Amino acid sequence: MTNKMLTPHDGEALAALRTALAGRLQGVRARVAVIAGSGLGGFARTIGVRCTVPYDELPHVGTTTIPGHSGRLVCGEVAGVALIVLNGRRHLYEGVAPRRATLLLRALLLEQPVDTVIISNAAGGLNPCFEVADLMLIADQVNWMFRNPLVGPNPPDWGPRFPDASNLYSQHLRETAREAAREAGIPLREGIYVGVHGPSYETRAEIRMLRAVCGADAVGMSTIPETLVAAQMGRKVLGISVITNLVPSAAPTTHEEVIENSRIAEQRFRALVHAVLARLKT
Ligand code: HPA
User: Fold this and answer.
1) Atom 7, ligand 1: residue with shortest CA distance
2) Would you call 245 helix, strand, or coil by DSSP?
3) Which atom of ligand 1 has the smallest separation from the CA of 125?
4) In this structure, is residue 260 part of a structural domain?
5) pLDDT tens-digit readout, 209-249
6) Which residue, 216, 269, 281, 282, could crosslink 194 as a Cys pair with Cβ 3.0–4.6 Å?
């Protein structure tokens, strides 16, 4: 049923991926999925690892080719909460279609009892009050990628054809994150994330536009497609941006700078996610 409603190519890919995941994740019943953004892969080492599945052992996922992104699923547990980390993601700028870029997440959500998806990313800080290595809770998003992973056939088990998007980032999870950050003494910003296609960083004119027109506080090249998929499937989403560079900047933005600053912020990110997970237990 499901596969007939997809393009044959997509349907076969999803079915093969689901079968592979079901085989590889036997005994895993994850409640939370965490997508680790650029430079944040070290988080997966802190989760009491039970099993790992390299992406190249899964059909149709593809190995991420970008420095700073590994490519494996890592299953573990934090504070009694079973979770799966997607350590590495596909980006649209790699030339991957939005449905393909979100295929692994879609398959995981179809196979696992995940109710909460924590999505992280490295982002440029547009808000002049932000500093490098700040964490920003995503309150809402602007899809400036002009691509959408929900385009195309929509099998019933994916969720509504026309999903509401007025509350993509769970209010309740945001409150939980704010409380967790306050108690753990972790400074936490909150704002609007605008997703752009990339891979080039923004021009000065684009930066002015993203601030003025989109009202955005942070800009990045990921997250938008995954949030749309998770929300369509009725999952609660928590989004966290790590501010890796400030824009506009006198110096050119480089990927090396982004990865380095993301790694600097990783400790904070890890502390925040652990504190949030501890609060999800009940
Ligand atoms: N722009 C777009 N994507 C990014 C940036 C940026 O400045 N920093 C990290 N990811």
Assistant:
1) 124
2) strand
3) 7
4) yes
5) 999 999 999 999 999 999 999 999 999 999 999 999 999 99
6) 216
- Tell me the sheet residues that pair with 72: 54, 87
Instruction: Give the count of domains, the chain.
Output: 1
Q: Catalytic residue at 197? A: no
Distance, first Cα to last Cα, the chain: 36
Residue with tokens 């994330």: 193
Domain range for 45: 28-151+168-280
Q: Whose CA is nearest to atom 6 of ligand 1?
A: 124
* pLDDT tens readout for residues 22-57: 999 999 999 999 999 988 999 999 999 999 999 999
Catalytically annotated residue among 69, 107, 231, 262 = 69
| pTM of the shown model | 0.96
Take residue 251 and report the two structure tokens written for it. 């110096």
Q: Which residues line ligand 1 (CB under 6 A)?
A: 122-124, 196, 201-202, 219-221, 244-245, 247, 253, 258
Q: Are strands 116-125 and 189-196 parallel, antiparallel or unpaired?
A: unpaired
Euclidean distance between CA atoms 181 and 52, whole angstroms: 29
* Contact between residue 217 and residue 125 where contact means Cβ atoms under 8 Å apart: yes
Q: CATH number of the domain that 197 lies in? A: 3.40.50.1580
Residue 158 lies in a domain: no
Ligand 1 geometric centre to CA of 2 (Å): 36
Nearest CA to ligand 1 atom 4: 220
Tell whether the torsion through CA atoms of 103, 106, 111 and 112 is positive or negative: positive
